[in-house]
């Protein structure tokens, strides 16, 4: 018997979504849990000019609450490719990448496309050191597409 969350996308194999602060904190875990057959995930990072002064504290609290929940099935059995677009090396971006690499057991490829070329030099060594659940995962950092 399949138990679905409030939203359920049983046959969704590819998801491309723009990630804002709200989406990361509230809807991202819902999308992952509801998309059990997800093979390709494309995240375009949306950036705000000035984050709220309480953003970091509230983000950490909400993030920590949902990452302690059961790992979504798509990360354990289906997700093969992740593309991160418009990466700017922010807290939520790093945490999202760390979570996906740490929990995605069958991930084959993660590509991170940066907004500014200088960020690529920072991302390449950092992302290589992040623990990966999938030993076959290939990592790539490049300029924004």
UniProtKB/TrEMBL annotation:
Pfam families: FBD. InterPro entries: FBD (IPR006566). Residues 70-111 form the FBD domain. It comes from the Eukaryota. This is FBD domain-containing protein. It comes from Saponaria officinalis.
């Amino acid at each position: 018997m399949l138990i679905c969350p409030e939203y359920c996308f049983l046959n969704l194999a590819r998801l491309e979504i723009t990630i804002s602060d709200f989406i990361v904190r509230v809807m991202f875990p819902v999308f992952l849990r509801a998309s059990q057959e997800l093979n390709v995930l494309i995240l375009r990072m949306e950036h705000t000019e000035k984050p709220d002064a309480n953003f970091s504290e509230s983000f950490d609290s909400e993030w920590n609450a949902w990452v302690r929940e059961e790992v979504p099935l798509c990360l354990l059995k289906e997700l093969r490719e992740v593309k991160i677009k418009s990466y700017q090396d922010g807290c939520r971006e790093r945490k999202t990448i760390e979570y996906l690499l740490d929990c995605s057991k069958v991930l084959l490829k993660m590509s991170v496309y940066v907004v500014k070329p200088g960020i690529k030099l920072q991302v390449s060594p950092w992302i290589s050191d992040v623990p990966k659940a999938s030993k076959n995962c290939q990592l790539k950092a490049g300029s924004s597409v």
